[in-house]
Here is the input.
Amino acid sequence: MAAAEYTEVVLPGKVEPEGLQVRTGLPLPVPAAGQALVGVEATGVSFAEQQMRRGRYYDQPPFPFVPGYDLVGTVLAVGPGVGPDLVGRRVAALTKTGGWASHVALDAADLVEVPDGVGAAEAETAVLNGLTAWQMLHRKARVRASGTVLVHGANGGVGSVLVQLALAAGARVIGTASARHHDALRALGVTPVDYRDDVPARVRELAPNGVDAVFDHVGGRGIVGSWGLLARGGTLVSYGSAATRDDQGSKQWPVLKLLGRVWVWNLLPNGRHAYFFNVWAGRALARDRFRSRLRGDLTQVFTALREGRITAHIAVELPLERAAEAMRLAESGTVAGKIVLVP
Here is the structure.
């Protein structure tokens, strides 16, 4: 193991992106029993970090902490109880926090092997985003060929993977995005809708009988419009509350309000269904089952990536030390795809 020190980016409190702290020269973590030391090759910026720096992510840890929801890297060493054959393998992990570092010690059971032929940055685009997209599409909405789906934010990190997986499943896809992203969406086979327009009216023109699924990361009052676009038997999957990112007050309230709407909607006798998607659901009560499901689903996404059924959309790759710049760029809303940090 060549390196003896590592670097990490710390979120010290409710700060602007420039308030992120880069710490270098730290003693390298030593993997404990059941752990592996991963040399991080790629991590990324997600919407969760944007909420965390505002103190508005639902279950974020107390400040200070190292952000970073997922990572891809190579196993450099293992602790007691872990087979030595894991050393040298490229792996991915869903971490929620801690990924913005050059080296991370993780439970070996939480690592998912990245197949040959998939680069680190490519794989990074598919960890949180790909897993979220796969599980929403196939485990919640259960979209079938010939169905029609609406994806809000079709150019974003999750949205760009979701539209490709939906198209690969044989679905017709309508996607909202700003006009500058429409040509790229059309090239994929998506019917674009400008999110600044009257989206419900435009979608009803395209799908007069309603859509089979809506994937909504916006939340807020617009979620009611998403519910209203469903055909009988359709499914709404809400997986965020971007509309309330800059709100003040309780960070729990937007989520609780969404959960309340979902509960009420599911009681209505109209054959429609609603879910609030949480990628961590089930982990606390059945960790082994959660790990097995995560490993299986993420492997499916990596296989689709390797076979070309989906393509990695990398907005930009930046050094880890430029995390503040990466955060600013992510919050600007001007990029398509995933912003990747490279230690």
About this structure: The first strand starts at residue 5 and ends at 10. Residues 287-306 form the longest helix (20 residues). Residues 17 and 324 are 5 Å apart (CA to CA). DSSP finds ten helices and 15 strands in the chain.
